[in-house]
Design brief:
The chain is of the alpha+beta class. The protein has helices at about 1-10, 25-30, 65, 195-200, 225-230, 230-235, 240-250, 255-270, 275-285, 290-305, 305-320, 320-335, and strands at about 35-40, 45-55, 60, 70-75, 80, 85-90, 95-100, 120-125, 135-145, 150-155, 165-170, 175-180, 190-195. The chain folds into three domains: about 1-20 and about 220-340, Alpha Horseshoe (Serine Threonine Protein Phosphatase 5, Tetratricopeptide repeat), CATH 1.25.40.10; about 30-105 and about 200-215, Thrombin, subunit H (Beta Barrel), CATH 2.40.10; about 110-195, Thrombin, subunit H. A hairpin with a 2-residue loop joins strand 4 (about 70-75) and strand 5 (about 80). The relative contact order is 0.13.
Length: about 350
């Protein structure tokens, strides 16, 4: 059972599969549209983030990068450009910073709602105040409906300074903005949808400095989106509380697939295998690219003695995420699966 638990934790930590890389030339060209954002704060300190050029002389970044800044500059090709206005969507944590004569490549906006689970994506940003833009490669793991768009959870990790950076699909279109990660060692990484940028471009110009309301992710715990509220009980293995939160989520958003998935995880860990299997089947029926649901279905099948389906699940996972397929294969072959319905 120890190996089984290790595999589950690895899955929760979003272990990534070997990825097919986008063309090197395309990635290099896209770096021209990503800039370093540097701000001067009232206390004399400075801050650094990332941004993406989304229209002529307009750079999108996170509002939390530039909030309260006395001055905002972007650094590109060794040159510093001073901002003269911002446009703000404080609630969604997206701000546009305006310039004169920036003259650099404009990223083409794509759609976050067009993404699929296990689809490769890559990010470009300036983590840890890097002198040059860095690229990470990962997979889409979950999509969470919010305000007519989708919050995008991926395996692309990031560090301080990456906030406001770009997430692209393999066509080189901007589909998300790097924004936040969950606390804890096994962090979950979230990106804001490109759809929100379109409406932000139409917002009025504001003078600098400017400050607004807190973003949705910095609200009191009980007011945060459910996809954030499930993380703490998941990481602390508080399965009864995870079940309660997932049930509340499902009641509020009955069509949200991940609410059903987290309920199934809680049921599985509470040894309610029949209900877990029922709900995981519903998840997988609605989205046959949901590798995590298929992983749990394979585990349950093996524990209930259905090795044929466990092998079939492993085979299906090979086409979605080879790492998760390997985890399922190792777990179902090495764990003590004679425990039947009793926890090993």
């Amino acid at each position: 059972m120890r190996k089984l638990i290790t595999a589950l934790l690895c899955l929760h930590a979003l272990c990534s599969s070997a990825l097919a890389m986008p063309p090197e030339g395309m990635v290099y060209d896209l770096k021209a549209s990503v800039v370093k954002v540097r701000v001067a704060l009232p206390n004399g300190h400075s801050g650094v983030g990332s941004g993406v050029v989304v229209a002529k002389d307009q750079v999108v970044t996170n509002c939390h990068v530039i909030a309260h800044a006395q001055a905002i500059n972007v650094i590109k090709f060794g040159e510093s450009h001073r901002a003269n206005y911002i446009k703000a969507d404080w609630h969604h944590d997206l701000c546009i910073v305006g310039f004169d004569g920036l003259n650099t490549k404009i990223a083409e906006l794509g759609s976050g709602t067009s993404l699929q689970y296990e689809q490769p994506v890559f990010t470009i940003s300036f983590p840890n105040n890097s002198p040059r833009p860095l690229t990470t490669y990962g997979l889409v793991k979950a999509l969470y409906p919010m305000d007519d768009a989708m919050i995008i959870q991926t395996t692309n990790d990031f560090r301080m300074g990456a906030s406001g950076g770009a997430m692209f699909n393999d066509d080189g279109k901007l589909v998300g903005i790097i924004t936040l990660k969950s606390p804890g060692r096994k962090a979950f990484y979230y990106n804001l949808p490109a759809e929100w940028i379109t409406s932000l471009l139409l917002q009025p110009e504001l003078s600098i400095p400017a400050a607004g309301t807190l973003p949705f992710w910095d609200a009191p715990e009980q007011n945060r989106p459910y996809f954030m509220r499930v993380i703490q009980p998941l990481q602390t293995e508080d399965w009864p509380n995870l079940k309660i939160i997932a049930q509340q989520w499902l009641q509020q958003e009955p069509n949200t697939l991940e609410a059903l998935h987290y309920l199934a995880i809680a049921e599985y860990r509470l040894n309610d295998l029949e209900n877990a299997r029922l709900h995981l089947n519903q998840v997988y029926t609605r989205n046959n690219r949901h590798a995590d649901a298929l992983f749990y279905l394979g585990l349950i099948a093996a524990q209930m003695g259905n090795k044929e389906f466990a092998a079939h699940a492993t085979s299906l996972l090979e086409t979605l995420n080879k790492d998760v397929a390997s985890q399922l294969h190792a777990s179902t072959n090495s764990a003590n699966l004679n425990c039947n319905l009793t926890p090993c």
